[in-house]
Design brief:
The chain is of the alpha/beta class. Helix content is 34%, strand content 25%.
């Protein structure tokens, strides 16, 4: 594949390394000095976008307008998702977006849902969610944490909403799931879900050791998206039912 990298920071460089290892070619590298609009996209097979929430919509729209399939790893633009997905369908375009491209995290998403379903109705247990990311992580809570929180709400009838706290547990009303975000140096991403009672605690955790898992998943997603039209997620790539 001939790939356009939109965003050439630490994540972009990790994607570049893995893409080349898998036999692909990085044709375009966009950064803050070289906007996507300054490049010729005519020979691009797919774009992979990891930038900032404020920039992502511009990049996505430009790729859809130019009929370039795009894999989007930027999070924090949830309010724009319905509009973007409608545009992709209207233009017969291709977009695959996810809150996290790590295969391990996507397995963790499914484990979270199954555990939430098992714990539903066990009111002696109180659920909580904690996420830790590096200091450069702009959105808080992270997209991954929001996906996990929503997975609990959708599968555990004891919770109807979540409340967020930065560095400290939030005040919660009845039926609210507490979600706490921490920002610390050099943490790629750690997410922990706890169900605590007076007699024991059940804990599941996903801890990323580096960015390679996210980068590999993004490249696999780009490979999968070739010759497809529509709106997709990592659930489609991994064929989770």
């Amino acid at each position: 594949m001939k790939i356009a990298l939109i965003g050439y920071g630490k994540m972009g460089k990790a994607i570049e390394e893995i893409a080349i290892e898998r036999g692909h070619e990085i044709v375009i590298k966009c950064n803050s000095q070289n906007d996507i609009t300054s490049f010729d996209l005519s020979n691009i097979d797919v774009a992979i976008e990891f930038t900032k929430p404020a920039l992502a919509i511009h990049h996505i729209n430009y790729c859809l307008d130019n009929h370039i399939p795009i894999v989007v790893g930027t999070t924090g633009w949830n309010e724009h998702i319905p509009t973007i997905e409608s545009k992709a369908i209207a233009l017969n375009g291709s977009i695959l977006h996810a809150s996290n491209f790590s295969i391990g995290v996507n397995l963790f998403f499914e484990l979270n849902k199954k555990l939430a379903k098992l714990m539903s109705g066990n009111i002696e247990y109180s659920a909580s969610l904690e996420e830790i990311h590096h200091l450069q992580k702009l959105d808080s809570p992270s997209g991954t944490a929001i996906t996990l929180a929503n997975g609990i709400l959708e599968n555990n009838s004891d919770y109807i909403s979540w409340a967020h706290g930065k560095e400290i547990a939030p005040y919660t009303n009845f039926g609210q799931l507490p979600l706490v975000s921490f920002r610390q140096p050099d943490v790629p991403g750690t997410h922990t879900i706890k169900y605590s009672s007076d007699v024991d605690t059940i804990t599941i955790t996903h801890e990323a050791h580096n960015r390679k898992g996210f980068a590999l998943g993004a490249v696999i997603a780009a490979e999968w998206l070739q010759n497809k039209k529509g709106v997709y997620s990592m659930k489609d790539v991994l064929n989770f039912k």
